[in-house]
């Protein structure tokens, strides 16, 4: 679903302004839901250069080469605020700048540490199993000229990658598929002499590499994706400036992110940048903040696809630690700075979702009066509130019986006791749809305004929620949202047609039964009618049409195509019943689960109307008056007065007339095969009186029958709504017609 956040500091300019301002002291400083929990010095972390950190399985592990002699690892619970004494991994002797460490987490929670012993030019690897047992030290490489900047990562298929660089040489790496017992040969990742580098493992055995290298007389950032036998290297920055100190990460969906810094200290090319690789292989960049940044910019995606960014900035001369957080479906929040300042260098960080929520762990070199130590900073994100999820994250919902939707908060942090909401905009004190703050429960049902149910734009609606805890004063710094398509209307046209009229229109005239092939739409003389279900731009399409005597006694259900349904339907509950009105209830459903009921009626009438005429075929004086058109006497107007037709079903008794022309009198018009009967609907019938205008004497006659100056005869039977025809008839005589035809004038077109 579409989820967004309205961030308090949502513009880059505001973020840059924050970076340029000194941090507020104190560990409780907060920005956009971010919080610094604690900062401390790792015990026995003397003279550690380039510390590393990783987190997972509710634990955090930091590594470093202490005292110019030993590779250490410090471990604690992810939310704990202190470390115990470190574990001794093995010798890491020599200059600490060159005897560095790296730590990574592998499948199942195993921990892998690589480090360099500079005097022996040896790279070591050691594993801690998920149950906490350390294995033996393995030798990754020995004898490389001058290894520095070691990095380790372990793929989801347990393939171990260890990479490093030698001065003025490309990134080198080796891999192992048996826990480090044996290794592939030393391989160059590219032909470029590299500086700082980073490795990251992703889903489905994927691996990625990043490094800084000179290109076109500029420092540039490169990224490479593992293809099974090597890395496909791509330059991802432009030659507009110098860039350095990148890191790389995968999220759970396999998307790749790289972050780096601009070498410039001011202007548009300064600050922190990141990019996400696109399906076409491009890397469009985004700038998070401007200003002077030193050392590595750490980026990583946690198991919920949130992004964590950490770096050291110098907004006012001194160094400060900064942290920004991007929820998976929202904009970046922050940055927030720590309380620490002073001489800080070479930060590394790792974000992870612990039991308490998203956390970011950062380790940094700190020079002070006590010498070089490792500072650890613990940040939290989303420490209060939660992301709303509508109807368990389905894409479409219809109208519910109580006009509400179910809203849950599966990643809730804290203990909110109140909520307010608004559709399609963030709630405020002045404007909201919840009637102010309401009691919170998880889940809860939120009323959908009728205007959203009636919206036929087919666009999703967005629900914004905001939570607070009145007992502690905690409140979400932003409204969070989820979107869903709300379809509350079945958009359809449903109507009936006279089944005989429809059959004639479709070219399948019924077998003769003595009645006319037509009649009123909701009348029939047979135990069936003709149903039309026509979609009317329903957003999600129609599914079924059900027919019955009531909405709860459905007899037949029809599957609807994209064009709906049109067909002959047996009258519900028919069993030779007497004539009269019968309920014909049609229920149409759409893919959103909505139902719309049409309470129709069909009048079943198998009985013929009776013409109470004393002498068959003879009209009483004034009963039928025929008047020729004043100019074109081929056309005749017939005025009927007080026609004595009896019909117990049709309200006006006469629905129409069935008329046939003849050039001479006919002895048995009901059975004469030469008469061609035509239906004419009667309008405005009052007490048997009505008018038929512009009846053509040519209707039903052949050309040889049309002789000017002759008499003509119009035979007329009367129809009820079901098309039943009276056996009685009248005949109207048209004396001496010249058969003058109407003229059709076409416009003269000149060229």
Task: Please explain how this structure is put together.
The protein is mainly β and 751 residues long. 3% of the residues lie in helices and 48% in strands. Strands 1-2-28-27-26-25-24-23 form an 8-stranded antiparallel beta sheet. The N terminus is likely disordered.
Show the helix and strand layout.
Elements: H1 12-20, E1 30-31, E2 34-41, E3 52-56, E4 59-66, E5 70-77, E6 87-91, E7 101-105, E8 111-117, E9 122-128, E10 138-142, E11 148-154, E12 160-165, E13 171-176, E14 187-188, E15 194-201, E16 207-215, E17 218-226, E18 231-235, E19 243-250, E20 256-262, E21 272-276, E22 285-289, E23 293-301, E24 307-316, E25 318-326, E26 333-354, E27 357-368, E28 371-381, E29 389-390, E30 396-398, E31 404-408, E32 418-423, E33 438-439, E34 444-447, H2 450-453, E35 461-468, E36 480-487, E37 492-497, H3 499-505, E38 523-524, E39 528-535, E40 542-548, E41 554-559, E42 565-570, E43 580-590, E44 595-604, E45 610-611, E46 624-628, E47 635-640, E48 645-646, E49 656-662, E50 678-681, E51 690-696, E52 710-719, E53 725-737
Parallel strand pairs: 30-36, 38-44
Antiparallel strand pairs: 1-2, 2-28, 3-4, 4-5, 5-6, 7-8, 8-9, 9-10, 11-12, 12-13, 13-14, 15-16, 16-17, 17-18, 19-20, 20-21, 21-22, 23-24, 24-25, 25-26, 26-27, 27-28, 29-31, 31-34, 32-33, 32-35, 35-36, 37-39, 39-42, 40-41, 40-43, 43-44, 45-48, 46-47, 47-51, 49-50, 49-52, 52-53
Key terms for this structure?
single chain; 751 residues; mainly beta; eight-stranded antiparallel β-sheet; five-stranded mixed β-sheet; 3 helices; 3% helix; elongated; disordered N terminus
């Amino acid at each position: 679903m579409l989820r967004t956040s309205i961030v308090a500091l949502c513009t880059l300019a505001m973020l840059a302004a924050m970076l340029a301002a000194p941090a507020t002291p104190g560990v409780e400083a907060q920005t956009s839901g971010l919080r610094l929990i604690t900062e401390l010095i790792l015990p026995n972390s003397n003279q550690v250069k380039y510390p590393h950190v990783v987190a997972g399985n509710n634990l955090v592990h930091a590594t470093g080469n202490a005292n110019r002699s030993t590779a250490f690892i410090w471990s604690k619970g992810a939310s704990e605020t202190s470390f115990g004494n470190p574990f001794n991994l093995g010798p890491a002797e020599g200059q600490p700048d060159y005897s560095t460490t790296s730590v990574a987490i592998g499948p199942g929670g195993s921990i892998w540490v690589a480090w360099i012993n500079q005097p022996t030019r040896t790279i070591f690897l050691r594993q801690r199993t998920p149950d906490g047992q350390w294995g033996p030290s393995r030798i990754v490489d020995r004898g490389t000229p001058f290894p520095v900047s070691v990095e380790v990562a372990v793929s989801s298929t347990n393939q171990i990658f260890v990479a490093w660089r030698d001065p003025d040489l490309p990134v080198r790496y080796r891999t192992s598929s048996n826990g480090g017992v044996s290794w592939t040969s030393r391989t160059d990742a590219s032909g470029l002499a590299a500086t700082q580098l980073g490795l990251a493992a992703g889903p489905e055995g994927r691996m990625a590499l990043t490094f800084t290298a000179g290109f076109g007389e500029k420092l540039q950032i490169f990224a490479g994706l593992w293809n099974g036998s090597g890395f496909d290297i791509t330059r991802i920055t432009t030659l507009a400036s110098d860039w350095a100190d990148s890191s790389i990460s995968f999220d759970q969906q396999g998307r790749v992110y790289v972050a780096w810094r601009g070498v410039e200290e001011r202007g548009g090319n300064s600050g922190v940048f990141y990019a996400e690789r696109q399906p076409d292989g491009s890397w469009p960049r985004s700038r998070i903040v401007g200003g002077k940044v030193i050392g590595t910019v750490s980026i990583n995606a946690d198991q919920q696809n949130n992004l964590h960014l950490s770096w050291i900035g110098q907004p006012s001369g001194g160094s400060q630690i900064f942290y920004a957080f991007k929820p998976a479906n929202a904009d970046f929040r922050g940055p927030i700075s720590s309380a620490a300042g002073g001489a800080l260098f070479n930060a590394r960080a790792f974000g992870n979702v612990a039991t308490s929520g998203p956390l970011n762990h950062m380790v940094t070199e700190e020079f002070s009066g006590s010498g070089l130590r490792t500072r650890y900073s613990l940040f939290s994100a989303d420490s209060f509130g939660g992301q709303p999820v509508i109807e368990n994250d389905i894409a479409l919902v219809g109208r519910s019986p109580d006009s509400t939707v179910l809203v849950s908060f599966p990643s809730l942090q804290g203990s909110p006791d109140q909520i307010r909401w608004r559709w399609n905009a963030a709630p405020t004190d002045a404007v909201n749809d919840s009637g102010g703050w309401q009691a919170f429960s998880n889940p809860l049902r939120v009323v959908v305004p009728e205007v959203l149910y009636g919206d036929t734009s087919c666009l999703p609606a967005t629900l914004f929620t905001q939570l607070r805890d009145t007992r502690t004063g905690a409140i979400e710094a932003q409204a969070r949202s989820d979107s869903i398509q709300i379809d509350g209307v079945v958009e359809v046209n449903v109507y009936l047609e006279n089944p005989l009229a429809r059959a004639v229109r479709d070219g399948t005239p019924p077998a003769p039964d003595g009645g006319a092939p037509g009649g009123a739409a909701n009348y029939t003389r047979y135990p069936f009618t003709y149903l039309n279900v026509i979609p009317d731009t329903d957003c999600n399409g129609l599914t079924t049409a059900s027919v019955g005597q009531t909405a709860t006694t459905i007899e037949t259900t029809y599957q609807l195509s994209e064009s709906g349904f049109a067909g002959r339907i047996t009258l519900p509950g028919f069993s030779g019943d007497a004539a009269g009105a019968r309920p014909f209830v049609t229920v149409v459903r759409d893919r959103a689960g909505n139902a719309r009921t049409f309470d129709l009626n069909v009048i079943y009438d198998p009985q013929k109307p009776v013409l109470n005429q004393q002498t068959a075929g003879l009209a009483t004086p004034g009963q039928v008056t025929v008047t020729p058109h004043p100019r074109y006497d081929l056309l005749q107007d017939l005025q009927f007065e007080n026609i004595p037709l009896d019909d117990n079903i049709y309200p006006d008794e006469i629905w129409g007339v069935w008329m046939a022309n003849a050039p001479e009198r006919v002895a048995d018009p009901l059975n004469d095969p030469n008469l061609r009967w035509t239906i004419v609907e009667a309008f405005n019938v009052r007490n048997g009186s009505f008018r038929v205008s512009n009846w053509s004497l040519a209707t039903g006659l052949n050309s040889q029958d049309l002789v000017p100056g002759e008499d003509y005869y119009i035979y007329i039977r009367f129809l009820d709504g079901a098309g039943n025809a009276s056996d009685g008839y009248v005949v109207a005589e048209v004396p001496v017609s010249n058969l003058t035809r109407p003229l059709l004038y076409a416009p003269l077109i000149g060229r």
